[in-house]
Amino acid sequence: MGIRDALETSRRAFVDKRWPTGGVQAIMEFDFNAETAMPVAHGRFDVKRTPQGALDLGGDAQGMHLRFDKTFEGPLRATSVVHMMAVGTAVEGSAGYVAIERLDGTLDGRSGAFSMMHFGVMDRGHPSLRVEVVPDSGTDELTGLRGTMTIDITNGEHAYTLDYTLPAA
Question: CATH topology for 3-165?
Answer without folding.
Answer: AOC barrel-like (2.40.350)
